Amino acid sequence: MYRAGERYMAYIKGKERFGGLIEHGLGDWGRGIAHGIAQANIETAVYHEYLLCMSKFASHLNLDDEKKSWEKEAKRIYDVYNQHLLVTDDPSRPHAYYTSRDDYPNRDYDAVCQALALQFNMVPEGHISAVQASILSDVSDGKLRSGEIGLRYLFNTLGDLGRTDLVLGETTLLEFWQDECRSKCHDMLGSILEWFYIYVLGLKVGEKGWRTFTVAPDYHSEFGTVEGEFESPYGMIGLSWSKISSGIEMELSVPVGSTATVVLPKDDCHVMINRHLLDDKKWAEQSNRVELEHGAYTLHFPI
């Protein structure tokens, strides 16, 4: 399998333009003319991710020299991506942003291009806050402009930025925006369930296999009560949280062999914790997060 991946990477490398950009596929399918939108942004980011996957693959196989070679290739693509797509010198915009090459050399300012760069960790550290501001600026009118490829990354980025209020109206990922589109559940790249679990319920995997996981819902979202379950490899994770007069009441079940990190809504947050065992242990902490091992818990904290 590793050598098959190596051959595929050689094939993709043969499609490079301008030193490393890929503009060979459908782009953000389902938007505008249906294809060819934001090709370089989408396909090059995915190419970079593939190279990182090959590096991890080589590491598992103890191929240290090949691991370093894949990392070098990934760094090359990262640099080319930012050389051609990151804009830091536009006097008409208050923030750095990513442009597509759809109408080169003209620049555009599109939420999907910002989301892709953020979700695939393509943004240099010094520009992350600026690119986050750029995506929020583009969607400030309450309208989401995306095809079905970019939609997942757009939803996830809005969740990361605490703007779940902008994800409204649909309960599936669409192929096209038309009311009579041929596919209203076009979930080959993910599904709206991912957004519900991670950004509404607040449950996110840590290490592979759910040995660790994070609980970090958007406590300031429009939802008053949220509850759900997830069958992890270590057992059932149960989670519910509600807004009450004093803040948040949370119920959490952590299965054997797992550790949960509960992210609190502010630094130095005072949280009351009740672990439901035979001794019904209670205690208080003051932090921005708490780690909880196997057990059933009730937590109370302000927002």
TrEMBL record:
Enzyme class: hydrolase
GO terms (BP aspect): carbohydrate metabolic process
Catalyzed reactions: Hydrolysis of terminal non-reducing alpha-L-rhamnose residues in alpha-L-rhamnosides
Domain (Alpha-L-rhamnosidase C-terminal): residue spans on this chain: 202-268
GO molecular function terms listed in the Swiss-Prot or TrEMBL record: alpha-L-rhamnosidase activity
Domain called Alpha-L-rhamnosidase six-hairpin glycosidase: residue spans: 2-200
Key words, A-Z: Hydrolase
Listed EC numbers: 3.2.1.40
Pfam families: Bac_rhamnosid6H (PF17389), Bac_rhamnosid_C (PF17390)
Superkingdom: Eukaryota
Protein name: alpha-L-rhamnosidase
Organism this protein belongs to: Botrytis hyacinthi
